[in-house]
Amino acid sequence: MILEGRQVRRLDGVGFAAHLLQLQKLRTSRISIRAPTFVHVVQGLKTVYDGRNTWTVAPGQLVVLPSGLYDLTNDPGATGVYEARSLSIELESVAPGPLASRFTGPASSAFVVSRCGDDLLDAFGRARRAILAEGFPLDVARHRVLEVLEWMRSRGYRLPAPEPRTTSDSVRDLITSSPATGWTAPAVAAELCVSAQTLRRRLQQQGESFSGILFDVRMSCALGLLQSTSMPVLQIALACGYDSPSRFTARFRERFGFTPTAVRKSNTSTVGAGPSIAAV
Prior knowledge:
- The chain contains 9 helices and 14 strands.
- It has helices spanning about 90-95, 115-130, 140-155, 165-175, 185-190, 195-205, 210-230, 235-240, 245-255; strands at about 1-5, 5-10, 15-20, 25-35, 35-45, 45-50, 55, 60-65, 70-75, 80-90, 105, 110-115, 160, 265-270.
- The strands form 3 sheets. It has a 7-stranded antiparallel sheet with strand order 1-2-3-10-5-8-12.
- Strand 1 and strand 2 form a beta hairpin.
- The longest helix is centred in the last third of the chain and has 19 residues, at about 210-230.
């Protein structure tokens, strides 16, 4: 979808691209990044905290977020607008098998590319446009993402090697593919070819629950749509599995500590933070 200059789209087997706009300084905690994600800050400031280290990303800089949990603050600053362009890469599909080792290394944390250079940013833009464009050839889109990885490698930057997928990863991916679906644990278990009891046991072993993942994924999708589209809140609620706008607003506030409209409202004050999984 492309609405008033905001863009968001996933191309299965390649990655996810979004154009994020935010008019208020907001902090979200425990944001789950499921795939290597590049965020180019255009206006405002982004602060990233992974539980140990803090990075501040200024306009023109690129931050690379490996899979993990992060606290993120998006600050419009003096311009009054936080604007960023993101690209998440499905590395195992874009660079399968031994090819992945060309772009991965011992790095284990986020890092900032302070001087991106025109070549890297041009490649970044081409890859995003390939994902955002309807009907773009899949193989060409993959090559454009590979070009970004090649420019990163030429500058000495490598991504952490992918970690083995877990049951919770599979559950998150399935729900993310259709957050409006009335998912139940038995339905998801059937999709994953396991029993509901086995699914619950595996999630419990990973410190997760089906209801918690369902809630997190739906709220993540909601925040992403608020940041990257101009869809009405009611439409976003429906797209994320909530028939009642008031229920959706209450759950959103419970998760993030602020209302859905706060994401788009122009206000320089910081709205309360809370544990969350959200878009970047």
